[in-house]
């Protein structure tokens, strides 16, 4: 998870990804693709134009190091020409709560009205007494879901609170992978990689 600050943060992001970041409304995010010079897909990212003063970028964990190196290199290039952009790497953990019961389970621990949080939108809030969480209505299961960015030191506590609900279970990546196949969603390292372009992947809809 990376935060991008500065007045040139949108120009920075659009120099790396295929999405139309400038068109994102406050609080809105989009799935987009980080591409290399040949158009191959280096990673798929979710980029959110937060209600605060930054872009919030979520990379795949397995690609985090290479993505960050690319981000830092590009930021330095732009800074050298006078652009105002800087990065902050978050040490937050990320929990995904997915499925038909998600809204009911999560609403019990939120003061915000989840019904007002539409797909691919994001808020900063307190979740089951844990402040400083970012809740984004997205996920990779084909079901209604959220991803919760939570301060790392309280991630286990929040996970346990969620698991107090009788219809919440722990699930690993194998479960996620089977669900994404049913939903027809690409998975980095399986269907898409640096040798595959957005056109070849059937992901032209991601292009701004």
Automatic annotation (TrEMBL):
This is Aminomethyltransferase, mitochondrial. Gene3D superfamilies: Aminomethyltransferase beta-barrel domains, Aminomethyltransferase fragment, Probable tRNA modification gtpase trme, domain 1. The keyword Ubl conjugation does not apply. The glycine cleavage system is composed of four proteins: P, T, L and H. Residues 2-206 form the GCVT N-terminal domain. One of its GO terms (molecular function) is transaminase activity. It is an enzyme of class 2 (transferase). The keyword Transferase applies. The lineage of its organism: Eukaryota, Metazoa, Chordata, Craniata, Vertebrata. GO terms for cellular component: mitochondrion. It catalyses: N(6)-[(R)-S(8)-aminomethyldihydrolipoyl]-L-lysyl-[protein] + (6S)-5,6,7,8-tetrahydrofolate = N(6)-[(R)-dihydrolipoyl]-L-lysyl-[protein] + (6R)-5,10-methylene-5,6,7,8-tetrahydrofolate + NH4(+). Pfam families: GCV_T. InterPro entries: GcvT/YgfZ/DmdA, GCVT_N, TrmE/GcvT-like. Its EC number is 2.1.2.10. SUPFAM superfamilies: Folate-binding domain. Keywords: Aminotransferase, Transferase. Belongs to the GcvT family.
């Amino acid at each position: 998870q990376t935060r991008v600050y500065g007045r040139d943060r949108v120009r920075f992001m659009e120099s790396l990804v295929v999405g139309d970041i400038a068109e994102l409304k406050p609080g809105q995010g989009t799935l987009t693709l980080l591409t290399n010079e040949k158009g191959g897909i280096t990673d798929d990212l979710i980029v959110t134009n937060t209600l605060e003063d930054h872009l919030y970028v979520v990379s795949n964990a397995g690609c985090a190091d290479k993505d960050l190196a690319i981000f830092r290199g590009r930021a330095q290039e732009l800074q050298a020409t006078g652009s105002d952009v800087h990065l902050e790497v978050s040490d937050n953990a990320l929990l995904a709560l997915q499925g038909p019961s998600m809204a009911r389970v999560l609403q019990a621990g939120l003061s915000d009205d989840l019904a007002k949080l539409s797909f691919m939108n994001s808020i900063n809030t307190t979740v089951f007494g844990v402040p400083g969480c970012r809740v984004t209505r997205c996920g990779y299961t084909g079901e209604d879901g959220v991803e919760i960015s939570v301060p790392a030191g309280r991630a286990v506590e929040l996970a346990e609170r969620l698991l107090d609900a009788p219809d919440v279970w722990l699930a690993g990546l194998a479960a996620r992978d089977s669900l994404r196949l049913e939903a027809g969603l690409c998975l980095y390292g399986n269907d898409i990689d640096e040798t595959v372009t957005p056109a070849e992947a059937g992901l032209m809809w991601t292009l701004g």
